Amino acid sequence: MVPAPPPPPSGAASPRHRRAGEPAGTSTWTWPVWLLLGVCFGIGHGLTQRLIDLRPGEATGGRQSFGVKAFPGSGLEGLRTRHRAENRSLRADLDALQDERLKQKEAQELERRQADLERRDQEERERRERDNERLRLEELQRPPAPAPDPTLDAAPPEPLEALPPPPSAGQGTVDPTGQP
């Protein structure tokens, strides 16, 4: 018995299909063969498209093989009658929506400012109350003022003109006790 030849490596052409002198791994399909194959497919596609455009069924009366059915679900008119809505346009007025959003933002900003002013006023009132309370407590903790000195309330001394004249310079020193 004769052993079978080993299988060719993957991707390589079988030795039976190779021409003599052709290196292994090359294909017998060259570019003109591929070009001819592409032209044939293009012509077939073009003919099929033309046949479909002719619509041979319309020439015989145009009967459809199935009946027309309504689209499933509820239509707009059905929803309006079910919910008793007036017939109004469904187009959205983007300018009106933008104006409404702008008014809402302005209202929120105004509320935030008013709340901020009220908070500041409340903090100012609380600060004043704390200051008044602190001053009152300091006044209560301050020691009482000393009683006024009665000598300070006495009549002021006599003016200097009412005093006797000073001793004269030629008489010498005078002893205030009056002894010689």
Characterise this structure.
The protein has helices at residues 31-54, 56-59, 76-82, 94-141. The protein has 180 residues and is an all-alpha fold. It has a domain at 111-141.
Distance between the termini: 184 Å
Alpha plus pi helix count: 4
Order of helices and strands: HHHH
Q: Tell me which oligomeric state these chains represent.
A: single chain
Average pLDDT number:
77
Shape: elongated
Gyration radius, in Å: 62 Å
DSSP strand tally: 0
Strand content: under 5%
Largest β sheet strand count, sense and barrel closure: none
What's the arrangement of secondary structure elements?
Elements: H1 31-54, H2 56-59, H3 76-82, H4 94-141
Keywords:
180 residues; mainly alpha; 4 helices; 46% helix; elongated
Could you give a short description of this structure?
By secondary structure, the chain is mainly α. It is built from four helices and no strands.
